[in-house]
Amino acid sequence: MGSSWYLDETEISSYDPGHSSPDSLSFNGKLFNYPAGSMSSLAEKGVVYVDSDPEEDDDLNVPDSTCGGHGILVRSDPKKTTFQIVNTRIHDENKHVIYCVMVLKKDVGIDKDQVTVERRYSDFAALYKTLRKDLSSLFKDIEVNFPGKVIGQKNNLNPELIESRRMALQDFLQNIFKHKEVRQQQAFKEFFFLPGLREATDSLKAGELENCLELFLNSIHLQVKLCDEVRETVATFGAIVVVLEAQGKLEDAERYARAALELNHDDYLSPYAMPLLDTLAKLRRILQMEKKTIVRHLSELQRMSGIEVEDTFTLRELAVKRFEKVK
């Protein structure tokens, strides 16, 4: 097998510096012109493009622009990720402050996918404590200013204190994110997107499709922007395919399956490679789309691995078992 997936009669692959780049690109049926050679800079930033049928784009009813012809950032420069605590509010019942953190990606154009998480000061403090313990040598070498605790609920709710903490916590996130060791830490992922992924998985098991789709979409934006591992990002895309297929949104499911395969690239050992190819082939058959190239790749993968698709987990099984502990 080559290093590219063949989704149609024409090859859709990652950018090859040896070939000339296009001067225009279709985003959901709209043609955008680019200066000559500018596409190479996008490819270097890890942008994967999934072409879509302009006649079908109006039917894309998914509140998300990561797929469906839009660029998917998978190897973005962490220096281009920014954090903004856009607002704060006082929780009426427990009288604590909620900080709304927005994660923005500025690699290509304007980030229109505004994704936020809400966290308490204690969540930030727990992250700081864990990172300082697990990455003690790193934290000795870098300067991290973390706002300390204050005694008394009345003091915690002081507007001036809330504003100073807002600025300090925002700087804290920006400072630690520069370091790859931090981004790879479980505690960092727990702070941002793992709780949402677990909740989405539980909702999927319970058949709460609308709720789990919203959670999965929010999580995938965070994973992409925060440079999560590609396999984990592919896993979330696979779960989104499962939900969309269950909702009967087959065109949307087909697009997300394509995006997942492009992200997976030539990782043929991924447990998602064969189920994604199988699912995409079935979706294309139902949608009466070209599928012979997908079927060919599926057959080649079965031959190379010595495993039949019937003996692998389905996408749904992978999605619901994702966070089950290995016994």
TrEMBL record:
Gene Ontology CC: early endosome membrane
- Where in the numbering of this chain does the PX domain appear? 77-199
Q: Which InterPro entries match?
A: PX_dom (IPR001683), PX_dom_sf (IPR036871), SNX20/SNX21 (IPR039937)
Q: Which residues form the signal peptide?
A: none
Q: How does it sit in the membrane?
A: Peripheral membrane protein
- A Pfam family annotated for this chain is PX
- PROSITE patterns, per this entry? PX (PS50195)
Whether Transport counts among this entry's keywords is yes
Compartments it resides in: Early endosome membrane
Q: What Gene3D superfamilies does this protein map onto? A: Phox-like domain
Q: Might you name a Gene Ontology BP term for this protein?
A: protein transport
Q: Which GO terms describe its molecular function?
A: phosphatidylinositol phosphate binding
Keywords on record: Endosome, Lipid-binding, Membrane, Protein transport, Transport
- Which SUPFAM superfamilies does the record match to this protein? PX domain
Q: Which domain of life is it from?
A: Eukaryota
Task: Name the chain's protein.
Answer: Sorting nexin-20
